[in-house]
Amino acid sequence: MRDCVRIDTRSLAVFRVLMGALLFADVLLRSRNFSFYYTDDGVMPQSLAMEMTPDNAFSVFFFTSDPTVIAGLFVLQALVAIQLIVGYKTRIATVLAFLLVISTDYHNPAVTSYADVLYRLLLFWAIFLPLGERWSVDAAHADGPPRASVAGVASALILLQMFYMYFYNGYHKLEDEIWHTGEAAPKVLGLDDMTFLAAEYIREFPLLLQLGGATWFIMLLGSGLLIVLVGRPRMAVVGMFMIGHFSFAITVRIGAFAFVAMAALVLFLQAQFWDDGKRVLERLGVDDGRVRLLERASSLERVAASVPRFRIDDERYRRAKSGVYTVSLVVIVVSVALVLAATHTPLGTVGAVDDTADSVDDTLSVVNADQPDWTVFAPTPRTTDRYYVFAAKTADGDRIDVYNDRPLTYDRPGQELQQQYSTYRERFYMNSVRRHANDERANGAHIELAEHYCTTWADENDVELTHLNMYQVSEDVTLETITTPEDRETWTSELYQHGCGDNEPTEIEPPE
After folding, report:
1. pLDDT in tens, 19-69
2. In Å, how far are 312, 397, 464, 506 from 500, measured between CA atoms?
3. pTM given for the model
4. Which UniProt keywords apply (predicted)?
5. Of 37, 169, 430, 486, which one has the greatest count of Cβ atoms within 10 A?
6. Domain end position, chosen among 284, 305, 326
7. Can you give the three-state secondary structure of 157-204, one letter per residue?
């Protein structure tokens, strides 16, 4: 069992670098829409963010609404990402990264996705792992050689996180036979509003997609092999999952999910992978390159060793630190066990267990560490394409589509619907607008977006808006219309009517 949950410290080092790089990239990508999504001048004021998050949710952004301070926190997050990459005071960097990540997600919950959920959960479990054991500033400061591997409760938890996600997703997909027949993959790849790059070409081969979809479904149900197998057999299974996620990365615009999952899969690569890789390089005759790489590594180690150490060399401090680590890990394990027992076993019918599990789950949700249902494209995948039309009436009586910046029409805004979103997070945001459009709350994402258009359109286009209606146009995707959207059945749904200023909401008639 120890071999099954053993993680090579070289894999830990690569995982650390990838997680830091993903965090740094995320900060840069989010900064493109900084004012629109993360300040009170945009569509997610702090009051709405707090309303959409659990009670007592933790976010450092909730302590300020000053755009300058918020921008400073973004910069801090980027600096922590660099700290994680180089592995300096790695456990502190991991804790800081986790707190800043959950803070950012709660600062605008309308733009988050399963990629954000998986990333923060992996960071949470990584707190208990020695990410800085190799190839880091911490390793250069260490008094002895690095451990070859780690095997214990902490390594088991982060590996089981991936197994749980895969298997639970496959379990949900058992509920719909569309996954058994393989029809799900071609229909999902037929959704223009969330596919890009290679999807346009791959969807021309529906039978191949059906085979791929059925294979992925079987892999999800058999994901326990990632834990049970070791050595080269495990490498083969990891390779299959890597190929699957890479295919998602070049076809489906779902954010960083594929890259986060691939970073986590690196943890399953044990010593056999690194030993085989070394032998392959030797057979390829790249010894000169290895020598240069080792020389460069030595120079980097000297630079790392020169970084200030700042270590408290006190036995009582070390014992207290070890005690806090052990107690924290025990509490986490017991909490997770309670939640899983209440959710997936008959113990959930026992009142005391169920109440305790609910209390634990509520506590975990405060720090955004609770497990979702992992219903990615499950149980029934969406097979309707969608795009949005925001019909608006101007003070001059003209009718325009402000979302797509054109005269009012309900026709497709383009052949590739994913291009209606400037960033992938805009699609997640519009999903939140659509879901909350029928809420009876006093406020919501749809109201804030409508108000934003009413107040900014005149400034940016010198045109005053009096009324705005939000519509969603849906297209039914079938196996016969995957590549021919013009042949699909379409229908229009009204999401929300809004009156700009003091005007009462009213229906805006579509063009003839």
Report:
1. 999 999 999 999 999 999 999 999 999 999 998 888 888 899 999 999 999
2. 61, 14, 9, 11
3. 0.91
4. Membrane, Transmembrane, Transmembrane helix
5. 430
6. 305
7. HHHHHHHHHHHHHHHHHCCCHHHHHCCHHHHHHCCCCCECCCHHHHCC
